[in-house]
Design goal:
By secondary structure, this protein is of the alpha/beta class. The chain is 36% helix and 11% strand. It is built from 19 helices and 14 strands. The protein starts with 15 loop residues before the first helix and ends in an 11-residue tail after the last helix.
């Protein structure tokens, strides 16, 4: 992410063998993402009878294929769940994820990336290679369980994918594809497993369309409460987004409470692209959030940055409106992830997409004001102030000074959290590791040789972080990736385990709250060993079949 972080026909077996190998029984009810939340999600034994679960479904599983839409996998999934439930009950016990995990080093937090905000590389199948997609070509070859087979025309970003589905298959099928993905990708089993491992904080990236009705001054009929799909207000002919039902989101908070988890709600991107990367929603189109305007239904011309403030304010007010059981789960909110990410680099390449660093900082200051004036600071909710190094020419000389002037010492030590992201995947010859020459070290080198190199990289940056920033600190994204090209990155478990330990030890030393990016990545197998904590905790290194 230092440079940018970066579909048809499901198999009838519905990845049964992959689920068996992963030994994850994704059973119980699933979240109904485009409607009312369904209660009662539970774990039924994550690690029992993996070999039996890996067996193909047969006639005894009472499963028949269906021809609805592109293909609905609920039949196969339900059969797998029934089989898992039967085996768990027969065993008479529920296995603990923590007792099975091979790694004793547990991050304080983890992200649920690839769930409510899409990035193409998460869904790149066996052909995925770059964390930051190259040129203008995407890597998304599907969106399981309903959408597969796009190897020849991979999708690039969430907004473009949604609009393509609308145009080629209609709104109803587009909603089916997204709702099926959201229901299956993260379930109550995931929350149970995360909690069992000892992780206590979960960061949930959200699309701006979660608060699409904040745009009602532009068009009250289009951006109305309850809308299921909304167009981007600038790129409406090219990008659309499926909304996230806020009542369902409140249900997620209640479910998290049952597992003793805290949630950080992260507004990950803004209309028309507030950063340059596949997670911007409109990539490879030019980000226009910082420079363009839109007209309201009354004829007023409004900067998109003002629209962004409407969305941020809507998020703050919604969190304020939550009941005690839901609000108590909210550890904090991010009003925009990585504002202006890549602005400095793009400007230096004669492709500016902001009006300057001051504009970005001033806007961040306005969102801070929204939060400060709310009741949230007094209710124990934190504001995670996300800042990205590639947004600024000289990040460490610019942003910490702005931060200390924007937030008082009391605020910095109570509810304002300076939040960065840290990766060596783009560390070049200083910090990256590869299977070929070009980085700081080779993956074939002994752990004892590599450790001091990585230790220095982490220590130097975190010591700078601690020295420059007074107050609460977070690194809400880090991973074990040693190089952004997954094919050439290290997969040696000894190297990766050491790398994880070094990062967490230094984070703890400087009192930096770390969130691993990300929890699961079953449809990007080339990335799993370094980017999926579920995969790491299961003790697997070699890529598994992706199910795409």
């Amino acid at each position: 992410r230092a440079c940018a972080r970066i579909l048809p026909g499901p198999p009838k077996q519905l990845f049964v063998r992959t689920l068996g190998q992963m030994a994850l029984h994704r059973a119980g009810f699933v979240f109904a993402l485009l409607g009312v939340a369904l209660p009662g999600l539970w774990s039924i034994g994550f690690f029992a009878a993996a070999d039996q679960l890996a067996a193909p479904l047969g006639s005894d599983d009472e499963c028949l294929p269906t021809d609805v839409g592109v293909g609905v996998p609920g039949c196969g999934l339900n059969a797998l769940q029934r089989r898992a439930i039967s085996q768990a009950l027969g065993a008479g016990s529920v296995a603990s994820a923590a007792s099975t995990a091979e790694v004793a080093t547990i991050p304080p937090g983890v992200n649920l990336g690839g769930w409510l905000v899409l990035e193409d590389w998460f869904f790149s199948g066996t052909q995925g290679r770059h964390v930051a997609s190259q040129g203008t070509t995407g890597q998304g070859v599907g969106l399981p369980p309903l959408l597969k087979g796009l190897e020849d025309t991979p999708w690039q970003s969430e907004g473009l994918l949604t609009k393509w589905l609308q145009d080629t298959r209609g709104d109803e099928e587009a909603l089916q594809v997204f709702s099926s993905h959201r229901e299956a990708y993260i379930t109550g089993d995931d929350l149970e497993q995360i909690s069992s491992l000892g992780i206590r904080s979960v960061r949930v990236p959200l699309p701006w369309a979660t608060f699409a009705d904040a745009l009602s001054p532009i068009d009250a009929a289009v951006y109305k409460a309850g809308a299921k799909i909304v167009p981007d207000p600038v790129y409406g002919d090219k990008a659309s987004f499926v909304t996230v039902d806020r009542e369902w989101l409140a249900g997620l908070l209640r479910e998290a409470a049952q597992h003793n988890l805290k949630i950080v709600l992260d507004l990950h991107f803004m209309p028309a692209g507030s950063s340059d990367g596949t997670y911007s929603g409109i990539w490879p189109l030019k980000p226009k959030f910082w420079t363009d305007s839109v007209s309201t239904s009354g004829g007023e011309v409004v900067p998109l940055t003002t629209v962004g403030l409407w969305i941020a304010e809507a998020m703050v007010k919604w969190v304020e409106s939550l009941g005690p059981s839901e609000l108590g789960v909210v550890e904090g909110i991010t009003l925009l992830n990585e504002p202006g990410h890549m602005a400095s680099i793009d400007k230096n390449n004669s492709k500016p997409f902001t009006r300057g660093e001051k504009q970005v900082l001033d806007w961040m200051g306005e969102t801070a004001g929204l939060f400060r004036r709310s009741t949230l600071p007094g209710k124990g909710v934190k504001l995670y102030v996300s800042a990205s190094e590639p947004s600024f020419d000289n990040f460490w000389e610019t942003v910490p000074g702005w931060y200390s002037q924007t937030f008082s010492q009391q605020e910095r030590h109570s509810w304002a959290v300076f939040d960065i992201h840290w990766y060596t995947a783009w560390g070049g010859d200083k910090c990256s590791g590869r299977t070929v020459p070009g980085g700081r070290y080779l993956c074939s080198q002994a752990v004892d040789e590599v450790r001091p190199m990585l230790h220095t990289c982490i220590e130097d940056d975190m010591a700078k972080f601690a020295g420059k920033v007074d107050g609460l600190k977070s690194c809400s994204e880090f991973s074990l990736s040693t190089f952004e090209d997954a094919v050439l990155a290290c997969r040696n478990r000894d190297i990766l385990s050491m790398y994880l330990q070094e990062q967490l030890d230094i984070f703890e030393q400087y009192r930096i709250q770390g969130f691993f990016w990300t929890w699961r990545m079953p449809y990007g197998p080339n990335f799993e060993s370094a980017w999926s904590y579920e995969h790491i905790a299961m003790g697997q290194v070699a890529p598994q079949e992706s199910g795409l």
